[in-house]
UniProtKB/TrEMBL annotation:
Top-level taxon of the source organism: Bacteria
Annotated transmembrane regions: 94-117
Name of the molecule in the record: DUF1795 domain-containing protein
Region Disordered: start-end pairs: 1-80
Keyword annotations from UniProtKB, A to Z: Membrane, Transmembrane, Transmembrane helix
Amino acid sequence: MTRFGRLRRGSAGGDDGFSWHGRSGPEGGERDEPEDLWNPRPRRTTERGLDRDDGDPQVPWESLPPSARHYGAPADPGLSRRVSVRRWGRPAEAVIALLLAAGLVAALVMVVLRIAVPKPATARLTDSLAGVTITLPAGWQEGAVPPVTGFTSVARSDGALVMARPVPDPVADVTKATKDAAELYSRLLLKGDKVDVVEDKALPQGHTRALRAQYQDVVNRPAYLRVTLLNRGGKAVLLVGLLQPEETTRKQALDALMSSVR
C-alpha cells in the first residue's frame, strides 16, 4: 500500500458516499489523512524524498513546515558572505560610474562650448570722407560725433580716442606737416606743464610723432598724444590719438590701433 491513501466511492461508513483510505499507522491501522489531490508536487516530493545539494539525508514529510510542503525543499542560504560583498560592491561601482560619467559630461560640455560659441567679430570703422578704415579691437567702439571740429570720425575706449580727418590741401612736406599738427593739438588737447617728444619717425606713406605731457598738480596724470599724417596718392589724412592716463599696455594698444589704419 502506498504512503498516501486513495479516495474511494461507495465505501461504507461515509455519509456522502466517499471514504478516505489512509496510509498505515504505527499499529497497522489506517490513518485518516487525506491525500493532497489539488497539489501533486508534494506527493512526488514525498515519494522520492527531499534531496539536498549538501548531501543531507532525506527529510521526513511530517517534519516539514507547510511552506515547504507546498513549494518543496527550502533553498540553502549559504550566500551571506557573497551577498555582503555585493551589498557593498554595487554601491561603490555605481559611485565610480557616476563620477566617470560626470567627468565625461563636463569635458564634452567644454568642447561643445568652445566649438559652439563664436569668436567676437572684429569691428571696423570706415570713414569715407577721410578715405580710411580702422580695425577696432575689443573694448573699442565708433563714436557718434568727434570732440574736435574738422574731424569726420572717432573711435573711443575707456580714457582713449582716435580721430580721423581728411587734409584738403596738398602736403608738400609730410614731416614738417606732422610736426606742426602735433604742436597744434598738443596745445589744444594736452595743455601740459611739460611736453616731451617720445617718438618721431617716418612711415612708408607718411610720418608719425608721439608726445608725453606731464602736469605739476596731483590731479592730472601724464597724458599721451600721437599724430600720424598719411599721404596716399595725393590724398592726405590726419589721425590723432589721445590717451590719459598714460599706461604702457594701453599706449601699445593705441599705437597698434593707429597702425592698423588702411
